Amino acid sequence: MEKEYTIVLSDSNLLSNVCGTNDCNLKLIEEYLGTPVYTKGNELSIENDDAGIQQKFKFIIDRITDEIAESGSCSLDLVESILNTGFVGWEKSSSSSQNFNAGEAAIQIPGGTHRVYPKTKNQSVLVKEFRKNDLVFAVGPAGSGKTFLAVAEALRLVLSKKVNSIILTRPIVEAGESLGFLPGTLEEKINPYLRPLYDSMGACIPREMVQKLTENGVIEIAPLAYMRGRTLSNCAVILDEAQNTTTEQMKMFLTRMGENSKMFITGDSTQIDLPRRAKSGLLHALKILRGIPEISIVELDDTDVVRSALVRKIVRAYEIDSENEEMENAGRSEYSNRR
To answer: Three-state SS for 301?
Structure first.
């Protein structure tokens, strides 16, 4: 019979908070550890002789209770963040449990509906880079959290009065209809293109707050083509879908940066909608700016897709198909050369 390892919490209310609604947090912990977790009174127990499993179990519960003590609650996002990002370097040092703090990795938005936690190791790196450097490129597939985290960090900056405004922009790749012929004001014309950014804001703060900030000019919609000549100071700027910028647009955008500004540039290099002969400004910028210490480039992949498990599989299937196509093309080229 395996030896029981038990953690005693201060009271049953804390235990209930740790376990989550319908034990949803507990189920995640069990799946991660690969062993059942038992509850009784104010105790949590596992029956496992593996010292590594016991140590991880203690680490998880300690981090959760630390966060509850600080924020007063424990969400499913918090548990996922601890499980997916809290064990970086675990194998190298048993003291890593003392170094990781879920609260420090989270984005706390004043007036927000909840804390925003990075759910993967790369997302955790991205949040750190947002705080470290003023210019950050976040490149990754759909659903990897790059835009959502950029929006959350921008909201944190403006609502904690680190900057005065948020500027949202995207390149508009038109398909048959010119913006000039669409009805409505300029803002009404471009609003559908920026809907994903507004959806992300609505997931972080109440929608009425988003509306108020927009009406007061704190959140500004700025079409990329209208930025020439501006100096963007005291603001957080998000350029979304940057893979669809041209090299000229990207250079123009980057040189708009003024004092006390943050620029977050997000894009997916596999979803370029530019005309075939046009060169992506994002890919060009990543090539020539890589290595500049003040610029962060964070690359996410299919393992960071948190939108849904199915989306992760779809992204991976397309990546495999692209890799196979490249190999086939290389094979045809080599055969042609031999002939």
So the answer is: coil
